[in-house]
Amino acid sequence: MSLSSSIALFAPSSPPRTFSSSHSTNNSNTLSSIRTPGTPTSTAATTTTATSSSYFTTRVMPSMSIPSTPVQQITGNNNVPPTNEGTPVSVRERQGSFGGSNKVKILKPFNTANIKILLLENVNETAVTALRDQGYQVEAHVKALPEDVLIEKIRDVHCIGIRSKTKLTKKVLEAAEKLGVIGCFCIGTNQVDLEVAAQKGIAVFNSPFSNSRSVAELVLAEIVLLSRQLGDRSREMHQGVWQKVSANCYEIRGKTLGIVGYGHIGSQLSVLAESMGMRVFFHDVVPLMPLGTSKQVHTLDELLELSDFITLHVPETEETKNMIGEAELAKMKQGAYLINASRGTVVQIPALAKALRSGHLGGAAVDVFPKEPAANGPFFESELVGCPNTLLTPHIGGSTEEAQSMIGVEVSQALIKFINSGTSIGAVNFPEVDLRAIRDEENSIRLCYTHMNVPGVLLRITNILAEHNVDKQFSDSKGKIAYLMADISDVTPEQIQEIYRRVSETPTNIVTRVLY
């Protein structure tokens, strides 16, 4: 992207409308009258022409060097803050954060009907409803889109919601001219190029915990199914074969469960397994407080050697890629079982198939695979097909109605908070910043400034805001990106426009927003 190019984020596309500048006493963000140009107003209300209360400026790919050419803004009424020329402005005393009104001001940062949101892969209806209730334009699709169709669609949307099959690669993100935020309605975010998204000022949110109970229950069920060889018995019955056996079938009571990764899923599974009479050990890269009577072991090898069942609950990282291979499987007990409901790249599938066919392992349950079909249908191939006592499921660990509903609520609320008030708490690729609610005052604004993380930026911003009453301010950085939020009171429309102009023209600017 050229440094001199200009892209408006959440830029309104409809013609300007004229709003009354006096606020309703019942809802601080609801303007007391909305009219079309030319409609007379009472003398008690002044008018300001605007399409939106949120203004977004150019994105610049961050680098450690400061560009010599200032970032340019889009010109035109739709992309500059409102002015109030010719209207007398009352002067009020400067107040601190705890002065003035105690009411909370609910920010409505734009004409919400102009915000376009694209939801793919049958995102739960709880999310669709929550986003539509905000007044956004929501387009929902049951399946993932082909890359060429996705590239065309993403050019004009401000927010996209996906699950695990949609790949937001660098190529796709570079076509996203207005995109400001991504919602991953799942645990993982490896389907998104997080670095490119951050460089474009695009925050990415996910739901790391909402489906943990569903996954834990599936794993516990698989432990029972494997120990009784129920997968094989069921298949035989469907084929008309009656095979009543007890050899190599066991109760799980008294058996040892080894959990690799003691996070939200692993710890819940620990409690459930203990309630079934199992002994629980776990391994994690950091020391953690055990739940119940479970115990942490120091090494993965130690866990592999002492466990009857090994279950994996780790993220996809360079350290976890192929972490279970031929050498690790050989260290497991003769007749032990392996369960993987984490990431498909964690286990080397050929090595697992060999261990199953040789009889070294008593069985396995695999819910995730290195390569998964992009759509439902007869597309699945794996070396594990036909292995004895092997349960294969199509990545359904978190696929329950309860989990999808909770994910829909959690991610949609994160998207709404980021769009409406700038809150980035929970973003996986973005500095996490939040401020307490802004005061319910007419002439107060919130500045949200995403910028390159280089020395001298805060000095520039301090100089710009030096003549204004900054109620509160917070800044954080993550890698090459930094994010600042500041609430400013007692500002006139002309001053709002000037703050926006000066901040957005800083050479380190990526995205600037003014909310009020």
Could you give the topology of this structure?
Blueprint: E1 17-20, E2 34-35, E3 47-50, E4 104-105, E5 116-119, H1 125-133, E6 137-140, H2 147-154, E7 159-162, H3 170-174, E8 181-184, H4 194-199, E9 203-205, H5 212-227, H6 230-238, E10 256-260, H7 264-275, E11 279-283, E12 295-296, H8 300-306, E13 309-312, H9 326-331, E14 336-340, H10 349-358, E15 361-366, E16 390-392, H11 401-421, E17 438-439, E18 445-452, H12 457-465, E19 469-478, E20 481-489, H13 493-504, E21 509-515
Parallel strand pairs: 5-6, 5-7, 7-8, 8-9, 10-11, 10-13, 11-12, 13-14, 14-15, 15-16
Antiparallel strand pairs: 1-2, 1-3, 4-17, 18-20, 18-21, 19-20
Helix pairs in contact: 1-11, 5-7
Can you offer a commentary on this structure?
One of its GO terms (biological process) is L-serine biosynthetic process. This is phosphoglycerate dehydrogenase. InterPro entries: ACT-like_dom_sf (IPR045865), ACT_dom (IPR002912), D-iso_2-hydroxyacid_DH_PdxB (IPR050418), D-isomer_2_OHA_DH_cat_dom (IPR006139), D-isomer_DH_CS (IPR029753), D-isomer_DH_CS1 (IPR029752), D-isomer_DH_NAD-bd (IPR006140), NAD(P)-bd_dom_sf (IPR036291). It comes from Entomortierella parvispora. 25% of the residues lie in helices and 19% in strands. It has a seven-stranded parallel sheet with strand order 12-11-10-13-14-15-16, with helices on both faces. The protein has a five-stranded parallel sheet with strand order 6-5-7-8-9. The longest helix is centred in the C-terminal third of the chain and has 21 residues, at 401-421. α5 packs across α7. With 516 residues, the protein is α/β, with parallel strands linked by helices. The model is unreliable at 1-101 (pLDDT under 50). It is elongated and about 85 Å long. A hairpin with a 2-residue loop joins β19 (469-478) and β20. The two termini are 30 Å apart.
